[in-house]
């Protein structure tokens, strides 16, 4: 590596449980915020200037929080819990009360995926009580857009990524399944576009770069599988990235398309150059599995942060490769 691995710039404590999900909100607010969801059913809204929680929500009846995301210029928060509910929170009042909810019926750990279609509407994709089914609804109306079930048996839905291409008929959705398959769906036509076997074990996580039409996925094995979408929307497997230790909880690409972060079962966060998947750094701080990683996207690129949440109940924050470092 070109540089020694850095230390975290600071650590957030007091989440009260393993950190399953993290989400930055650095625009449209007075101070940069980090939202976290714990396995004890608590959502924290951390003020990154004071490094303290600005709000704490006891959510989902104490069930584990799987996923959080702000929407509509940070006026609202959406959360998903193991209580089979997706809840919508109004952040303007600070009351900590959910204003609406959707029953998913899902008993798994598959995180939702969301895209904002305009200033007031979004599309939300989630797994349902039928383990191989994905449902997509419009919110806040909760109107059903479609349900997607594979033609062949692929097992349980494990992970999702919904996005809107720059051109084409409408949203596309990537899904990872229990048998190790990746499947690309055309949401508008409710049709399967492409399928590939990316892993010998369940796909634990995936992320996708819509600008480069390139993605990467992880499982319980000692490798990451990278792939691209060709001009016909076929998933084409590319090179694999070998890992020292097995198991990846989450993958995240920085907004500038230069870095990839992986959350490892071996307590480590690994940083790769996204262009060539070159290993750049191994971040060692946590004493248990790293469950979540997230990059911030502030207006000033020099203030970008990486957050990592662990089973050890701590959130580490890192400032890495922010000023033109080579990251091939």
Secondary-structure topology with pairs:
Layout: E1 10-12, E2 19-25, E3 33-38, E4 42-47, E5 52-58, E6 65-71, E7 76-81, E8 85-90, E9 98-103, E10 113-116, E11 122-127, E12 134-139, E13 143-148, E14 157-163, E15 172-177, E16 181-186, E17 191-197, E18 205-209, E19 214-218, E20 223-229, E21 235-242, E22 248-253, E23 259-264, E24 268-273, E25 279-284, E26 290-295, E27 306-310, E28 315-318
Antiparallel strand pairs: 1-28, 2-3, 3-4, 4-5, 6-7, 7-8, 8-9, 10-11, 11-12, 12-13, 14-15, 15-16, 16-17, 18-19, 19-20, 20-21, 22-23, 23-24, 24-25, 26-27, 27-28
Summarize the structure in words.
It is a single chain. It contains no helices and 28 strands. With 328 residues, the protein is an all-beta fold. It has one domain: YVTN repeat-like/Quinoprotein amine dehydrogenase (Methylamine Dehydrogenase, Chain H, 7 Propeller), CATH 2.130.10.10. The strands form 7 sheets. Strands 1-28-27-26 form a 4-stranded antiparallel β-sheet, with no helix packed on it. A 4-stranded antiparallel β-sheet has the order 2-3-4-5, with no helix packed on it. A hairpin with a 5-residue loop joins strand 10 and strand 11. The two termini are 12 Å apart. The relative contact order is 0.14.
The SSE order reads EEEEEEEEEEEEEEEEEEEEEEEEEEEE
Task: For the record, give the distance between the C-alpha atoms at the N and C termini, rounded to a whole number.
Answer: 12 Å
CATH architecture: 7 Propeller
CATH superfamily: YVTN repeat-like/Quinoprotein amine dehydrogenase
Walk across the major sheet and give the strand order. 1-28-27-26
The assigned structural class equals: mainly beta
Could you please say which CATH topology applies here?
Methylamine Dehydrogenase, Chain H
- Whole-angstrom Rg: 19 Å
Oligomer: single chain
- Can you tell me the number of structural domains? 1
Write down the overall geometry: globular
Helix content: under 10%
What do the pLDDT scores average to? 93
Main sheet attributes: strand count, strand direction, barrel closure = 4 strands, antiparallel
Number of helices: 0
What would CATH call the class? Mainly Beta
